[in-house]
């Protein structure tokens, strides 16, 4: 039920900010196009005989029997059903595109068992082939995918169908393992809740167990780790638009995907990938925190760019090199566009949009975790600090990149008085300091148990005492060093805290915490070294004495403010298309009605 609300919010957020796309056609014409479209539902057989429910929608005035139609299709394959995300492809019908919507195997009205994306490369390629062979088809297929649908779109790198001519992927990931097991720690809330809410009731437990059985990287994850193999990107011969979010559950997979498409694809197409990073991604709850320069925490720009992307495959104009009716500011919008985060207070540095040809070069700057709790740029002396971590009393999760939990830049202060949370803080800054790029930590750690976790958080420390979360990372030792820890030994581990673009205002400080639990975002670790599926996992709980040496440090991507110029063009685009909010709300209300209709017809399970 929770995820149904998310998919409705996704529809609301996207359609709300892009109602103007329809208004450019005049709302009556758009409505007419919707009423007079041609719809056909088929059960398309895959290579193994499994039949997948597939809906094809042709634009007004078209016919399924017209060999001269020459229509290009926008395809979305989804586990959420037609009224989940698939129907978003309808946005492109008024411009003459067909919409192809398919329920992934084992979900909604399709047959088979949910394969956890292991069959999607083949299923997607088979569907593309079938669509391209239809009498009305131009032979060109454009991929659309948000969230789980985007994962299916990324798997097409494995099969790279010849008919695939563009990809638009929203808040998704080309990686599997680092999303579900970042640093080897199991994202309990995300994985368990998503499976239970999305996959058929009798299949969800099987899927959860299958994921837990593969808690270490290995062959099982290969179909979902496109970005682990740069050779996969060499097959890319099509333009791509990626839409990510700084507080999104999939951020790291989207950022690494951008690097793959940009730097490892066909050399002839290196400039045909663009990325847009908003503040939130899936974290719609955080919209209230970003009222400036956004609409419902979003921007209209990536949807406008998607029209340009898809139209470029029809007109032959290069993606991003021509002014179109959808992109009147085309030459002012570069390949990389993102929101620069800042403190959530009046007159704070940050909280604006920027656009540039590439992400800025940064200076990787180390801040050491001093024994005195001070975060400083020179390595401190001393042995470090220790704490006891009791599995029976885990540190509660507060905000961050979540889906089923509270998300966004939550204040971490409620956890800072705990004896099992180590806190480190810089001196307040005299002037604003900016970060843009990847955040990492290198920890020198000890423990008296065979297995434990380490969770690192980066925060903005306000003069008022609030500690607002920017990013965080995890390490589960048994899935990182692949052996039992030994008391008295020191272990060196790296923690990936994903990426950000953030400006600390003058008077603010950088804060870092280290702890050994973060529940329920991550599964609790009983410190016994047993696997997630071991029936005795929680029958043997041990309090750990963990140590963090003063040689530990975080590495932050420091940039100058001059490298992050404010783009007033993006703000103008947001203001322009916010005028059509009422029309977007009407469309979103229709989407909500679609949910009710689908529920009555058991299209979406309760």
Automatic annotation (TrEMBL):
InterPro entries: AB_hydrolase_fold (IPR029058), CocE/Ser_esterase (IPR005674), Galactose-bd-like_sf (IPR008979), Xaa-Pro-like_dom (IPR000383), Xaa-Pro_dipept_C (IPR013736)
GO molecular function (one): dipeptidyl-peptidase activity
Signal sequence segment: 1-22
This protein's UniProt keywords: Hydrolase, Signal
Top-level division of the source organism's lineage: Eukaryota
Xaa-Pro dipeptidyl-peptidase C-terminal domain residues: 329-555
SMART domains: PepX_C
NCBIfam families (alphabetical): CocE_NonD
Protein name, entry field: Xaa-Pro dipeptidyl-peptidase C-terminal domain-containing protein
Organism: Triparma strigata
């Amino acid at each position: 039920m929770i995820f149904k609300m998310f998919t409705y919010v996704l529809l609301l957020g996207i359609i709300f900010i892009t109602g103007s796309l329809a208004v450019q056609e005049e709302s009556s014409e758009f409505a007419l196009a919707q009423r007079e479209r041609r719809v056909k539902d088929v059960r398309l057989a895959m290579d193994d005989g499994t039949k997948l429910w597939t809906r094809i929608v042709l634009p007004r005035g078209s016919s399924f029997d017209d060999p001269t139609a020459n229509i290009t299709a926008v395809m979305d394959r989804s586990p959420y059903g037609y009224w989940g995300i698939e129907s978003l492809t309808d946005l492109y019908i008024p411009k003459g595109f067909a919409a192809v919507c398919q329920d992934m195997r084992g979900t909604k009205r399709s047959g088979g068992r949910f394969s956890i994306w292991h069959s999607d490369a083949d299923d997607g390629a088979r569907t593309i082939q079938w669509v391209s062979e239809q009498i009305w088809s131009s032979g060109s297929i454009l991929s659309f995918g948000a969230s789980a649908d985007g994962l299916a779109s990324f798997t097409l790198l494995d099969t790279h169908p010849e008919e695939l001519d563009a990809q638009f992927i929203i808040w998704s990931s080309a990686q599997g393992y680092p999303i579900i097991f970042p640093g080897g720690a199991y994202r309990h809330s995300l994985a368990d809740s998503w499976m239970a809410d999305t996959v058929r009731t009798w299949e969800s437990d099987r899927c959860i167990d299958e994921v837990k059985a593969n808690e270490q990287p290995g062959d099982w994850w290969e179909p979902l780790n496109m970005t682990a193999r740069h050779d996969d990107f060499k097959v890319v011969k099509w333009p791509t638009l990626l839409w990510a979010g700084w507080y999104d559950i999939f951020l790291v997979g989207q950022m690494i995907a951008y690097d793959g498409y940009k730097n490892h694809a066909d050399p002839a197409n290196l400039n045909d990938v663009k990325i847009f990073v908003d503040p939130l991604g899936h974290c719609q709850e955080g919209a209230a925190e970003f009222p400036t320069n956004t609409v419902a925490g979003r921007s209209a720009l990536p949807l406008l760019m998607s029209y340009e992307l898809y139209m470029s495959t029809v007109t032959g104009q290069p993606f991003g090199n021509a002014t179109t009716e959808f992109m009147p500011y085309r030459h002012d919008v570069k390949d990389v566009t993102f929101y620069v985060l800042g403190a959530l207070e009046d007159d704070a540095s940050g909280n604006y949009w920027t656009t540039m040809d590439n992400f800025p070069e940064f200076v990787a700057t180390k801040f050491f975790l001093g024994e005195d709790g001070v975060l400083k740029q020179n390595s401190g002396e001393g042995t470090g600090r220790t704490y006891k971590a009791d599995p029976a009393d885990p540190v509660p999760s507060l905000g961050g990149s979540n889906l089923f939990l509270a998300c966004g830049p939550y204040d971490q202060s409620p956890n800072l008085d705990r004896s099992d949370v180590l806190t480190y803080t810089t001196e307040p800054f005299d002037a604003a300091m900016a970060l843009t790029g990847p955040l990492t930590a290198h920890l020198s750690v000890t423990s008296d148990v065979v297995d434990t976790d380490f969770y690192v958080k980066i925060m903005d420390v306000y003069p008022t005492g609030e500690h607002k979360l920017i990013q965080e990372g995890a390490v589960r030792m048994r899935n990182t060093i692949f052996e039992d820890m030994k008391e008295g030994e020191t272990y060196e581990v790296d923690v990936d805290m994903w990426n950000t673009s953030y400006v600390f205002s003058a008077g603010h400080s950088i804060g870092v915490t280290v702890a050994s639990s973060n529940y329920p975002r991550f599964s609790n670790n009983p410190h016994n070294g047993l696997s997630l599926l071991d029936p005795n996992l929680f029958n043997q709980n041990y309090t750990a004495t963990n140590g963090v040496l003063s040689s530990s440090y975080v590495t932050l991507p420091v940039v100058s403010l001059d490298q992050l110029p404010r783009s007033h063009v993006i703000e103008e685009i947001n203001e322009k298309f916010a005028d059509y909010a009422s029309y977007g709300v009407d469309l979103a209300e229709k989407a909500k009605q679609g949910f009710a209709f689908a529920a009555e017809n058991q299209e979406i399970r309760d």
